């Protein structure tokens, strides 16, 4: 099980790093919103991995809350971002 | 480690691989719309694979119920958030402020297959002409200078 944690953790971390690079570089605000959405999905994945490894079922409730908050954040950003005028 | 643990580990690794794919796509794709497309598709599949892995590890019914709840929530919310985001990106790309009515959202695909193919050919030739026009001429050799 330790190898599962190492491999999955590395993959999650690399995905989050790439999303963070896009978060910094992204030319438009929508790119940054998408990068944040990806990072929130990775956070949900890490919480689920933690619950799987440590055999605790109470940790999964946090995953529900974070996925709901991720959706609300994405929808609010899409609604409230100012229009790019070119 | 029993067989069930091995299968659960495989599912967990596959689920994390989906997140890596989404991260790579968000970094490397050239356009906003492509990034949205490639970042929201693996999200739900990754969640499903991770839930399968966790469900095989912790088998109690309360856990299974929570996992099914998370998957249903992702199914319902991921398309909605992707649609809202793509709508803003599309409006920004088009550059207009009006409402998207039927007339302004009309595309060549609505007319029929021949019209769509003609529009694609026209777009490809226009893109090729733009690329050819932007190519700088070769720098001359020493003899020509």
Summary tags:
heterodimer; A: 86 residues; mainly alpha; 3 helices; 0% strand; flat; B: 145 residues; 2 domains; 4 helices; elongated
Q: Biggest interface between protein chains, with counts per chain?
A: A-B, 50 and 53 residues
The residue fraction in helices of chain A comes out at: over 70%
Overall mean pLDDT of chain B stands at: 82
Instruction: State the end-to-end distance of chain B.
Output: 74 Å
What does this structure look like?
Chain A contains three helices and no strands. By secondary structure, chain A is an all-alpha fold. Chain A has one domain (2-80). In chain A, α1 (2-25) runs antiparallel to α2 and α2 runs antiparallel to α3 (60-80). Chain A is flat, with a radius of gyration of 15 Å. In chain B, α2 (32-57) runs antiparallel to α3 (61-94). Chain B is elongated. The interface between A and B is large, with 50 and 53 residues.
Quick description:
The complex is a heterodimer of chains A (86) and B (145). Chain A has 86 residues and is an all-alpha fold.
């Amino acid at each position: 099980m330790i190898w599962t944690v190492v491999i999955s953790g590395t993959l999650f971390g690399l995905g989050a790093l790439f999303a963070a690079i896009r978060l910094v570089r992204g030319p438009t605000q929508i790119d940054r919103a998408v990068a944040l959405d990806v990072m929130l999905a990775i956070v949900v994945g890490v919480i689920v991995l933690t619950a799987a490894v440590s055999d605790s079922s109470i940790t999964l409730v946090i995953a529900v809350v974070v996925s709901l908050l991720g959706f609300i954040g994405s929808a609010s950003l899409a609604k409230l971002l100012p229009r790019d005028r070119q | 480690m029993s067989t069930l643990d091995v299968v659960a580990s495989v599912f967990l690794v596959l689920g994390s691989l989906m997140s890596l794919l989404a991260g790579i796509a968000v970094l490397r794709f050239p356009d906003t719309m492509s990034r949205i497309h490639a970042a929201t598709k693996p999200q739900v599949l990754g969640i499903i694979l991770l839930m399968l892995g966790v469900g095989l590890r912790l088998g109690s019914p309360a856990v299974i119920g929570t996992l099914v709840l998370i998957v249903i929530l992702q199914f319902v919310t991921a398309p909605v958030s992707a649609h809202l985001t793509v709508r803003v990106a599309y409006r920004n790309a088009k550059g207009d402020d009006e409402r998207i009515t039927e007339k302004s959202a009309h595309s060549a695909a609505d007319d029929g297959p021949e019209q769509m193919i003609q529009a694609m050919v026209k777009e490809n030739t226009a893109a090729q002409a733009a690329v050819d026009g932007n190519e700088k001429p070769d720098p001359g050799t020493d003899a020509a200078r």
